[in-house]
């Protein structure tokens, strides 16, 4: 065992690690294998703390058995993607995983289940140094971070632009640098606020900068436990933030020390900023609360948490011996959990017991596990539970699309907890929240443990739900579709008034006497001004019908293929894109896209599927909610058929008989991935929204692919008609449209419509009506507005696609994703087929009634 020389080091450093795959951590190689293996084997310590998942994997394999292993997880585990694999594989072989946020701990619990080691949440500390505090006198909003797409500072700029005219003294200051800087400057100029946007290079000491701010803002897609927010609240700066995974909700108590708004909703972000900009008394209350909330991140408190954890782990190690013995003990305890008793009096409707293994779950058939139905079950149970408990209550509308809200007086909190502790409903779970922040990971099962957990003493919201699953336990529904019972508090300066513990969409004050009123049906308070009680929609809620329209083709149909091949020959020279097989590839995406509509947009009135007279093999039978429409019934001139041009088909979809005024145009490769509201796509007054892409509409000449020349043709039309240049394409999302606008355009641009319809294949003379032109025409005529949506493009047959799919299945999901066919030859088409099919089955696992029994 002599010392290795520099040549050996260089050679080993160039060889891949045999212990840590590069996809887990590309910092490892054969040299680190040698050095770390030796160091870990010779380790003489009681506790080893690892700082990355890859190091945890090495420690679990190589550290001595008497060493206690603790991973300190610095990032949001659920959004790590493939780099989380070491935790999932080796986490059960360590003693403890410490996460920065409860959300990460809960994600690990859900993934590892009974194999999980001890899971603990300990946030980062705020350094105990002198820090100046804000006076709130400067009209300044501050945000800081790298100028990259994930930080979404463009959302913040757009939000500020919406309210800037009302607050002419206010400025927005961004600290940072990165590739998006020029994008931000151009956006501010386009929105007319370039003189009020300040972009400052990164500074070494942000402490002094926070004291200059009156409001801190965060608009990221995801965060760990953002240090910028910790620094801001320590300086007494209230924070307005997207409620993104995973950190902001751990720091911000909505309405107390800041505002949490739905991720990606620029309009509500603007409203929340304006709320603090225009109300000095509210700002002052939140500033004081921000400084107070920073105390739990003090070095003394965080050190105390770590010390108590280490002492507890050492005591456990002393009692249980080696690490393997501790793992075996955990497994044994998990295997001998006492099954729950039979259900008692208050039961969730139409649910039956599971077997011994999963006795706490209530079994439903797959169609009943659609989120809206589970949400309704939990709401109905909550209303019935409060009714039988004699607690007056008022249903309200919150911001979460998948959870229900009921308000009660905080004076009834003790009665609520007492009734819950009786444990009369098997499978019922309860969680304690302070505003929007969960107070503990996991949940309380009153049926098994009647004692009310201590965390509920501080709760201002009690979340209740039943855990539902299908018989095979493939689809599970838990707190994501819960019923939140809000405890409305007395307002110190407003006698007789109650205030909510967090923001909702309806009320911020209720007379305390309301909950003593006899003007109610049973115990459910009926207020004329509360829309849930009166049945009248809110001003911002869409109440008109919305349809969905798909275009679809079966490229495996031999007759269709024969016809396409013949017309390809007859058409002479075509651009390669026009007849590319990738444009017609059918991977059964339509099946999964329709599933996603049923799961996440149940408000869709009817689905129309426009085809060349084809029907999918898996489709059983249409009904009043789904209708197939042939090209022949839509094209005014039958001589242009058959057509293989999606641009041409777009020009006739508004002619569908029975189509509602408002509809969403879907390509079959577009999939919804989380609950949607119609307000994502339309304003309540009927105005349609559209979602711009960073991709530009360029003038590339006649040799450019037809989808690009169609964009430039659109640009020409809008410039000539309205005297404005359109420069951005649109995201490949569901496209909201109004039938009357399209009919008006057909009359005005008949020549363009006819020319596009006459082209059997995509051509350089086409317009792209539904994926660009109509949106900008609607904008120019006051009937469409730009908006934002959480979107992901999944390119098939590309490097990194499998990792992206893994992240989407395990972590936070966008509103919508699109599957893109390979731009070039797929190196492994068979693998792409298998991978895509698996991904879609896992992503949207609940079949519709339109699928044959052999399909799943």
From TrEMBL:
GO terms for biological process: polysaccharide biosynthetic process. Residues 544-569 form the Stealth protein CR1 conserved region domain. Residues 326-345 have a biased composition (Basic and acidic residues). InterPro entries: Glyco_trans_1, Stealth, Stealth_CR1, Stealth_CR2, Stealth_CR3. Residues 326-353 are annotated as: Disordered. SUPFAM superfamilies: UDP-Glycosyltransferase/glycogen phosphorylase. The keyword Transferase applies. Residues 583-688 form the Stealth protein CR2 conserved region domain. GO terms for molecular function: glycosyltransferase activity; transferase activity, transferring phosphorus-containing groups. Pfam families: Glycos_transf_1 (PF00534), Stealth_CR1 (PF17101), Stealth_CR2 (PF11380), Stealth_CR3 (PF17102). The keyword Transferase applies. It comes from the Bacteria. Residues 732-778 form the Stealth protein CR3 conserved region domain. Residues 135-292 form the Glycosyl transferase family domain. Keywords: Exopolysaccharide synthesis, Transferase. Belongs to the stealth family. This is Transferase. It comes from Arthrobacter crystallopoietes BAB-32.
């Amino acid at each position: 065992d002599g010392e290795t020389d520099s040549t050996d080091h260089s050679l080993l450093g160039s060889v891949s690690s045999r212990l840590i795959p590069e996809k887990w951590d590309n910092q490892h190689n054969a040299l680190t294998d040698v050095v770390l293996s030796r160091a870990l084997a010779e380790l003489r310590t009681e506790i080893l703390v690892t700082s990355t998942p890859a190091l945890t994997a090495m420690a679990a394999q190589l550290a001595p058995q008497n060493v206690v292993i603790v991973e300190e997880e610095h990032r949001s585990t659920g959004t790590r993607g493939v780099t989380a694999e070491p935790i999932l594989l080796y986490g059960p072989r360590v003693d403890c995983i410490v996460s920065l946020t409860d959300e990460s701990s809960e994600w690990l619990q859900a993934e590892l289940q009974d194999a999980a080691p001890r899971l603990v949440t300990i946030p980062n500390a705020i350094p105990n140094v002198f820090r100046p505090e804000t006076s709130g006198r400067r009209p300044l909003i501050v945000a800081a971070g790298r100028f990259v797409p994930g930080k979404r500072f463009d959302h913040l700029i757009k939000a500020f632009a919406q309210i800037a005219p009302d607050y002419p003294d206010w400025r927005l200051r961004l600290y940072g640098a990165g590739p998006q800087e020029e994008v931000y400057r151009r956006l501010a100029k386009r929105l007319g606020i370039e003189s009020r946007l300040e972009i400052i290079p990164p500074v070494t000491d942000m402490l002094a900068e926070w004291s200059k701010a009156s409001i801190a803002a965060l608009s990221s897609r995801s965060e760990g436990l953002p240090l910028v927010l910790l620094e801001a609240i320590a300086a007494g700066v209230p924070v307005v933030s997207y409620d993104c995974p995973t950190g902001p909700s751990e720091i911000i108590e909505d309405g107390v020390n800041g505002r949490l708004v739905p991720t990606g909703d620029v309009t509500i972000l603007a409203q929340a900023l304006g709320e603090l900009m225009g109300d000095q008394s509210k700002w002052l209350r939140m500033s004081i609360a921000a400084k107070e909330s920073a105390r739990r991140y003090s070095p003394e408190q965080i050190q105390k948490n770590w010390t108590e954890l280490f002492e507890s782990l050492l005591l456990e190690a002393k009692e249980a011996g080696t690490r393997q013995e501790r793992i075996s003990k955990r497994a044994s305890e998990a295997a001998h959990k006492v099954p729950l008793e039979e259900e008692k009096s208050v039961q969730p409707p139409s649910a039956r017991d599971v077997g011994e293994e999963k006795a706490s779950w209530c079994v439903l058939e797959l169609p009943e596990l659609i989120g809206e139905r589970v949400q309704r079950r939990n709401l109905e149970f909550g209303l019935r539970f409060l009714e039988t408990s004699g607690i007056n209550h008022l249903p309200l509308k919150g911001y979460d699309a998948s959870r229900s809200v009921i308000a009660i007086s905080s004076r009834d909190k003790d009665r609520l907890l007492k009734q819950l502790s009786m444990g009369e409903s098997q499978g019922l779970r309860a969680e304690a929240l302070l505003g929007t922040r969960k107070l503990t990971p996991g949940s309380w099962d009153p049926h098994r443990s009647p004692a009310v957990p201590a965390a509920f003493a501080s709760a201002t919201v009690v979340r209740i739900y039943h855990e539902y699953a299908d018989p095979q336990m493939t689809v599970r529904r838990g707190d994501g579709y819960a019923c939140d019972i809000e405890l409305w508090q007395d307002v110190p300066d407003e006698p007789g008034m109650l205030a909510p513990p967090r923001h909702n969409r309806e009320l911020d004050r209720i007379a305390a006497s309301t909950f003593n009123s006899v003007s109610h049906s049973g115990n459910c308070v009926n207020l004329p001004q509360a829309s849930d009680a009166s049945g009248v929609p809110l001003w911002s809620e869409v109440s008109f019908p919305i349809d969905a329209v798909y275009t679809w083709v079966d490229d495996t149909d031999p007759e269709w293929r024969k016809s396409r091949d013949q017309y390809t020959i007859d058409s002479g020279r075509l651009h390669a894109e026009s007849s590319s097989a990738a444009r017609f590839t059918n991977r059964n995406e339509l099946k999964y896209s329709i599933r996603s509509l049923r799961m996440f947009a149940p408000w869709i009135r009817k689905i129309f599927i426009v085809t060349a007279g084809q029907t999918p093999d898996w489709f059983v039978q249409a009904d009043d909610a789904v209708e197939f429409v042939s090209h022949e019934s839509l094209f005014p001139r039958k001589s242009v058929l058959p057509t293989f041009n999606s641009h041409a088909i777009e020009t006739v979809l508004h002619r569908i008989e029975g189509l509602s005024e408002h509809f969403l145009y879907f390509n079959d490769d577009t999939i919804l991935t989380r609950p949607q509201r119609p307000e994502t796509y339309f304003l309540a007054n009927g105005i349609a929204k559209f979602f711009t892409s960073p991709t530009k509409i360029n003038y590339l000449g006649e040799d450019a692919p037809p989808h690009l020349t169609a964009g430039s043709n659109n640009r020409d039309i809008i410039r000539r008609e309205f005297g404005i240049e359109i420069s951005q394409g649109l995201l490949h999302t569901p496209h909201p449209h109004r039938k009357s606008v399209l009919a008006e355009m057909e009359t005005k641009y008949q020549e363009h419509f006819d020319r596009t319809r006459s082209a059997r294949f995509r051509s350089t003379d086409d317009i792209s009506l539904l994926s660009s032109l109509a949106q900008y025409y609607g904008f120019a005529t006051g009937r469409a507005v730009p908006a934002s949506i959480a979107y992901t493009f999944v390119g098939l047959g590309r490097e990194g696609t499998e990792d992206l799919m893994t992240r989407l299945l395990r972590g936070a999901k966008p509103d919508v994703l699109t599957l893109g066919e390979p731009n070039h030859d797929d190196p492994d088409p068979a693998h792409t087929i298998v991978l895509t099919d698996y991904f879609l089955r896992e992503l949207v696992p609940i079949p519709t009634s339109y699928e044959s029994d052999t399909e799943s």
